[in-house]
């Protein structure tokens, strides 16, 4: 899902000399108009006919891409799962435990797309503390009326995605676990991908590092709405990076 750390995670993977992850190849609608266009695109990737800046001159032990849940994978899940299983494709689910943090990050990213505070340029990811500080200054206002229903919908979508691909060889990685213990989790990922172990690096800088209470304009309303619900733990789940 968007704003789950996938951009950071992909740069970490691509720092491995034997990995080529080609970004959001299904971001273009033409590649996911129907099931046939999706499968044709997958063939190009796995037949090594896809060339991007992520392509390596060295022997590639793992080739793939980043696929958001709103980019056709849910709509055509039956054919995609069949393709994955037939061709031995493995999947990494990168999820967030704290869906409220994800929501705040998503709202902030929408604001950045519209306002472009970094010299008129929209950046979903940054590579300097100065840029991160500028983007972190914006505090979104959460729609309280839709807050709980949106969290439920996101929860259900994640559960549905995992269910759709339960027969596909996969691993589930939570963003929060990756932040707290990067070395351990990246070792697990490399073992899952059957890669020779390497120290993985990324030049990206985290934007939102403060407690949630300092990131939301109407925090008191958010806290009141979420308390005494199944999502109350989201109010207190923080981490450092």
Our count of helices gives: 10
Describe the largest sheet. 2 strands, parallel
Helix fraction bin: 40-55%
Q: How would you describe the shape? A: globular
> Nearest-angstrom radius of gyration?
19 Å
Report the β-strand fraction as a percent range.
Answer: 5-15%
Query: What is the average per-residue confidence, as pLDDT, rounded to a whole number?
Result: 93
Structure summary, number of beta strands: 4
State the end-to-end distance: 21 Å
Which class best fits the helix and strand makeup?
mainly alpha
What does this protein look like?
The chain has helices at 6-14, 35-46, 69-73, 77-87, 99-115, 129-136, 144-164, 175-180, 182-192, 219-226; strands at residues 19-21, 62-64, 91-95, 170-174. It has 241 residues and is mostly helical. Helix 2 links the parallel strand 1 and strand 2. The model has no long low-confidence stretch (mean pLDDT 93).
Structural topology:
Layout: H1 6-14, E1 19-21, H2 35-46, E2 62-64, H3 69-73, H4 77-87, E3 91-95, H5 99-115, H6 129-136, H7 144-164, E4 170-174, H8 175-180, H9 182-192, H10 219-226
């Amino acid at each position: 899902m968007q704003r789950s750390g996938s951009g950071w995670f992909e740069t970490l993977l691509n720092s491995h000399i034997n990995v080529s992850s080609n970004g959001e190849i299904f971001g273009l609608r033409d590649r996911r108009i129907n099931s046939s266009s999706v499968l044709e695109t997958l063939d190009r990737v796995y037949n090594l006919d896809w060339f991007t800046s992520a392509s390596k001159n060295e022997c590639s032990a793992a080739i793939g891409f980043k696929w958001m849940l709103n980019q056709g994978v849910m709509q055509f899940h039956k054919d995609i799962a069949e393709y994955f299983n037939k061709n031995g494709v493995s999947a990494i689910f990168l999820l967030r435990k704290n869906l409220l943090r994800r929501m705040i990050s998503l709202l902030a990213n929408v604001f950045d797309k519209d306002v472009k505070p970094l010299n008129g340029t929209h950046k979903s990811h940054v590579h300097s503390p100065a840029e991160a500080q500028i983007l972190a200054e914006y505090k979104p206002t959460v729609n309280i009326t839709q807050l709980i229903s949106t969290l439920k919908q996101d929860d259900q979508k994640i559960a549905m995605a995992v269910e759709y691909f339960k027969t596909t060889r996969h691993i589930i990685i939570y963003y929060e676990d990756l932040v707290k213990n990067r070395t351990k989790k990246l070792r697990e990922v490399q073992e899952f991908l059957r890669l020779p172990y390497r120290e993985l690096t990324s030049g990206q800088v985290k934007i939102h590092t403060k407690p949630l209470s300092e990131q939301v304009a109407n925090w008191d309303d958010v806290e009141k709405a979420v308390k005494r619900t199944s999502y109350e733990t989201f109010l207190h789940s923080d981490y450092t990076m």
